[in-house]
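Cross-posting from the chemistry board since nobody answered there.

I work mostly on the small-molecule side, so proteins are not my area. We synthesized flavin-adenine dinucleotide and want a rough idea of how it might sit in this target. Sequence and SMILES are below. Is it possible to get a predicted 3D structure of the two together?
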Amino acid sequence: MSGGVAGSRRAFLKRSAAVVATASAGACGRRGEGEGEGATAQVVLPGETLRAVGKAVLPGELGADGTERAVAAFERWAADLEPVAELRHSYLVPGVRYSGPDPRPGWAAQLQGLETECMKRHGTSLAEAEIGQRREMLAGRVQEARGDFGPPAEAGHVAVALMAHFYRSAVARDLCYRRAIGQEQCRGLAGAGDEPAALAGAAA
Amino acid sequence: MRRVAQTRVVESDVCIIGAGISAAMVAERLAERTQASIAVVEAGRRTAGLAERARTRDRMLAYGENPYPGDHVAGQIGTGAMYNSMAVGGAAMHWGGAVPRYSPEDFRVRSLYGVGFDWPIAFDDLEPYYQEAEERMGVAGEQGPPEYDPRSKPYPMPPLPLSYNLRRMREWTDAAGIPFWTQPWARNTEPYQGRNVCQRCDSCYVCPTGAKYTPDFAFDRLLADGRVDLVPQTLVRRLVLNADSDRIESAQAVRTDSPEETVEIRAGTFVIACGHAWSAHLLLNSAGGRFPTGLANRTGNVGRYMTGHWFASGFIELPMQLFPGIFVNNSLLSHRFASPGPLDRYLRHDLRLWESDVGRAPRLRGDDRRTLWGDEIVSDWRARTQAATARIRAYYDVIPDRESRLTLDPSRTNSLGDPMPRLGFRAAQATLDLERHTHDAIESRFRELARSGGGKVMRTQRSQLFEHPGGGCRMGDDPATSVVDRWSRAHDHENLFVVGAPTIVSSGCANGTLTFCALSLMAAEEIGRGLR
Ligand SMILES: Cc1cc2nc3c(=O)[nH]c(=O)nc-3n(C[C@H](O)[C@H](O)[C@H](O)COP(=O)(O)OP(=O)(O)OC[C@H]3O[C@@H](n4cnc5c(N)ncnc54)[C@H](O)[C@@H]3O)c2cc1C
């Protein structure tokens, strides 16, 4: 019974994800080391282009270090993402759900595409283009995205995935409120009743 | 190589089928108070233990993954409102741990208000078992006004602290004259039974610290003490009658990891603790001989009167600044309207309030649909945090129809060919007749509450999902209209008990699991009497 219908669908999706990832790997990434048969090939997102996108879409208020931390956190998150993973059950809805196939090959291709377009349009790499030029290029690409930042893995475009990942974080919430709220941080019960402290250096 | 079919035989005084929270209550009580040997047979396997939960929590938060991977049995999927979790601990591995009691009125709605059904027991009959269930789980709670929150002893632990957000909201509700108090939770505010104190991780679906009660803790203890024989990955397909009497003789099962291996469990007493869907399913699937429509089903009531509550909910904008994220998994509760006193027209519901970031979350596009970038997103977000959002919800009583029914679905079978359950919940006409009145009254209550705080209702929603489902083997004194008696013993089989959710008569206006546990303990008292 363990090899039921759900199991075989999952295996199929995993295999498809691996094929997509492998097919794209030559152009936009490299295969992970030591992967076994049927394992998903690891696609690394081009870091410089991703950082150029980060500077265009993440808040400047974060500062250079904060932006770097947010992009690096996204990279780690993307590296650990498992396609076709078993998802949290829906409440009182029968059936096991799995996440979609690997979004990373597509994201890597998008970053590659941005570089190519930037070179053609502006004669520079994305990192050297002005922030306004980068945003202009991204605008059409994020038009279809959900307005409310859904799960980053479901974002059609890597720029939206990066923003969605950041805006779900405790760092983003604390930045917005300029308070040390520390959502989901296992903070202990003490202090729960207090108004959260102002962040050091934050204007009220 | 062909594998040879094997049958393993398990013998015990008591066989508990299912290893969810109701089973844990029965097993613990019997283990402590009797010398009986106890086998607990569970279709699913053991899932992520405490040591793994910090990691699976991180992945749940990052990727939405199931923190208890593999906690289901392939092919065991029905249709309708049911849980997926089939594993040691059952659905309560995932639960939030909100454990209000039902109100005394829930047990007597026919006598008091002329609608629905009275239970065969009163709140006072169940009260000691409520207390016992709270002590077994470890419940942290605040005593509400005694007229709305009756209890004979204090909660085992002090309540979870109100966050800054909830404190401000309570000032608002106090000013509005509606008594709210802290929701009781099966989460520790003090070290309890060797488990940790809540660390406010706000991921209660999986608790990385062990502060939330989950039934696997009870089974681990019982296993360590050698008091139960836990038989996981073993799906009971049917119960078999004694040739000469209506006693149950054995349970026939298969290993879910190697279906060619069958397991026969022989016991003096059988306890079905398979939750709201699989309990009636097992009885119906055991049809044959003298019980052609299913065991315990002489009067045709197995699978009927499936029940659960509906709700109305809303978001209220308040003119104050709150800080969503301080403690999302605590809330305020009121049973003021679950114990409403005399009524012209039936209307009973609870009220629950949470902090919320609805309307105050970051967004990619502004009101004019223009894409926002960088600092614009933060400015737009910040501007919307100057006011606050409270989430409010009212669970209300739904009267189950006799045709609210679990049946076997021959068009959907597992790999063994057994039909899967189809759950067709249905509210009785009395509830449908009251529906408009119910919603109008609740929504006007939301508006009044909002107005009293200088706020407004942003939006409301209605849900007809039968939450905290139960029924299908309801209890009663009259075998013509029920499946089990007040002690959860099947009218038709002296050595068969069905415990917890399936036995409830109605779902009241409160989360149900504490009541399922109290009923299971009451059943365990009766089972124990026969064993001593
Ligand atoms: C996300 C979530 C949050 C929740 N939050 C709350 C809350 O805050 N408060 C509240 O009151 N309730 C809550 N609930 C509901 C609560 O979890 C359930 O009411 C409770 O766990 C039901 O317990 P049970 O013992 O009746 O059944 P289950 O937990 O379903 O256990 C039954 C067990 O029996 C096994 N079984 C079934 N058939 C067979 C068979 N034929 N052979 C062998 N084994 C079998 C199953 O595998 C299962 O493990 C929540 C549920 C979920 C999913």
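Reply from a structural biologist on the board:
Welcome over. Reading the output above for you: Chain A touches chain B through 65 residues (CB under 8 Å). The helical segments of chain A are 5-28, 47-57, 63-80, 104-122, 131-142, 158-167, 170-177. Happy to explain the token format if needed.
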